Amino acid sequence: MKAYLANGLFSLGDRLVNEQLAVAIRDAISSIELYVPQENDAINDKTAYADSLAIAQADLEMLQKSDVLVAVLDGVEIDSGVAAEIGAFAMLNRPIIGVFTDVRQQGRDNMQKIEALVRDGIENQFVYRNLFVVGLIKRNGIITTSIEEAVKAIQKFNK
């Protein structure tokens, strides 16, 4: 099985999440060929130069070769590159596994939070994600809430 890991890769936090997720996936599925863009120095060594066409070509080639996309959805918004990768991969009608660990998902059954939102839309205790992107994921995949849950989802698609 070939997989592509999509996430931002410029901040320390993103790179650490990518490393943790990649290790967990590789440890659980030893036969997986996991592409992690931050490991591709040909286009992501920021002391070197790669133009937009080279970056798009390299990542599109790897998306087309992949059986599954693992996309991290965390952050203030979904990273723009991740959203583009989800859109491109969705056209292949292959599974997408979203990884969304935001703690604001907790307490969805708390009536105080729901009532506050109804009274005042600015009093939003929850989190929003672009519904088009979410829909693309849900068409053929799943949104998970932890690294462990994401690994289990990949294992199911690997059968």
How would you characterize this protein structure?
It comes from Lysinibacillus pakistanensis. This protein is 48% helix and 13% strand. The chain has a single domain (2-157), classed as Rossmann fold, CATH 3.40.50. It is globular and about 50 Å long. The protein contains seven helices and five strands, in the order E-H-E-H-H-E-H-E-H-H-E-H. The chain is of the alpha/beta class. The protein has helices at 12-28, 41-44, 52-65, 80-90, 111-119, 131-140, 147-157, and strands at residues 2-6, 33-35, 68-72, 96-99, 142-144. Helix 1 (12-28) crosses helix 7 and helix 4 packs across helix 6 (131-140). The model has no long low-confidence stretch (mean pLDDT 93). The longest helix is centred in the first third of the chain and has 17 residues, at 12-28.
Short description:
The chain has 159 residues and is of the alpha/beta class. Helices cover 48% and strands 13% of the residues.
Task: Give a quick set of tags describing it.
159 residues, alpha/beta, Rossmann fold, five-stranded parallel sheet, 5 strands, 48% helix, 13% strand
What top-tier CATH class fits best? Alpha Beta
Strand-residue fraction? 5-15%
Distance N to C terminus: 9 Å
Count every beta strand, where a strand is a DSSP E run of 2 or more residues: 5
| Anisotropy-based shape | globular
SS summary, helix count: 7
**CATH architecture heading:** 3-Layer(aba) Sandwich
| Uncertain spans | none
Instruction: Determine the mean pLDDT.
Output: 93
Mind describing the biggest β-sheet? 5 strands, parallel
Tally the structural domains.
1
Class inferred from helices and paired strands? alpha/beta
Strands of the biggest beta sheet: in what spatial order? 2-1-3-4-5
User: What pattern of helices and strands is seen along the backbone?
Assistant: EHEHHEHEHHEH
Radius of gyration: 17 Å
Helix content: 40-55%
Instruction: Indicate the CATH topology.
Output: Rossmann fold
